[in-house]
Design a protein that fits this description.
Elements lengths: L2 H11 L4 E5 L3 E2 L39 H4 L5 H6 L2 E4 L6 E6 L2 H10 L4 E4 L4 E6 L5 E5 L2 E4 L5 E2 L9 E2 L2 H4 L28 H16 L5 H16 L7 H13 L4 H14 L3
Parallel strand pairs: 6-10
Antiparallel strand pairs: 1-2, 1-3, 3-9, 4-6, 4-8, 5-6, 7-8
Helix pairs in contact: 6-7, 6-8, 7-9
């Protein structure tokens, strides 16, 4: 067993979802389609069901606490080549303020409440209790690593972890979701709408919202599959509106999905259905 795998198993036993990193802090691809980051660093959503590796297969989405997965054949070679261990902060309700240089650290000490800190190569990680959307370069030398990203494991750090403050949340200015309208398609060139009553469509949207908000893991994959199901059932006759799509986007964002990831999942679902 390698030292990195031993570290990963120790962290996983404590409830931290972990994964191997290769040199350059780059995640391993777990199948031929993802090697050398060919899938863009995200789970393969454009061709769901074609991936033979971990599901989801890449980066933060593959971080796990399951020892059988960590020691299984999909990552056997990866651990032998690993240069570091990464963890998914948002997966355990945490946020990391990544301070990349001395000026950023000085700003944090002036501005942010004290919390657990971990020294990095050039600065510090400040870890808070609470998850939020992730973003890079929220100010000079400051990144937020929480949902849908990974952070390199550099040790437990020192100090008492405190609640994520509003001053950190306010560093990310959220923009309204850009919802792609659904083009109206009438089946067979003039078939009758299958919804029959507004209640049929309303029930479908409500069930989709519930499926997303109740997702306990693999949120990104759940959002995509839910979008795909809604569009395949309700998207071809013209009854589905921007208001319905906005409700699904809002549900996804309550689970930590960014507007960009929502738009990507929606677009991929449309493409998969030929819409």
């Amino acid at each position: 067993m390698t030292a990195h795998l031993n570290t990963a198993l120790t962290l996983a036993a404590r409830g931290l979802p972990v994964m191997p990193l290769r040199a350059g802090k780059v995640p391993f691809g777990n199948c031929p389609g993802c090697r050398e980051n060919a899938c863009g660093g995200r789970p393969n959503m454009k061709t769901p069901g074609t991936c033979d590796c971990l599901r989801p297969c890449h980066a933060w989405a593959a971080a796990t606490t399951d020892p059988d997965t960590l020691t299984g054949p999909a990552w056997a070679t990866a651990w032998k080549q690993a240069a570091a261990v990464a963890w998914h902060p948002g997966g355990v309700g945490l946020a990391v303020v990544d301070l990349d240089h001395a000026d950023a650290v000085a700003w944090a000490r002036r501005t942010l409440p004290a919390t657990r800190t971990v020294p990095t190569t050039r600065g510090e990680h400040w870890i808070y209790q609470g998850a939020m959307s992730s973003a890079n370069a929220v100010r000079d030398g400051v990144d937020i690593k929480s949902t849908m990203v990974y952070a390199r494991w550099l040790g437990p750090g020192t100090g008492t972890m405190t609640t994520l403050p509003d001053v950190v949340r306010d560093l990310i200015v959220k923009k309204p979701s850009q919802v792609r309208p659904v083009t109206a398609h009438v089946p067979n060139g003039g078939g009758e709408c299958r919804h029959r009553t507004p209640a049929y469509l309303e029930r479908g949207i409500a069930m989709a919202e519930q499926r997303i908000t109740q997702a306990a893991s693999s949120v990104h994959a759940t959002v995509y599959r839910t979008f795909l199901a809604v569009l395949s059932t309700h998207g071809r006759c013209g009854c589905l509106t921007d208001a319905h799509a906005a409700r699904l986007f809002a549900a996804a964002q309550t689970k930590g999905e960014s507007p960009r990831h929502c738009a990507d999942a929606w677009s991929n679902a449309l493409a998969s259905l030929g819409m």
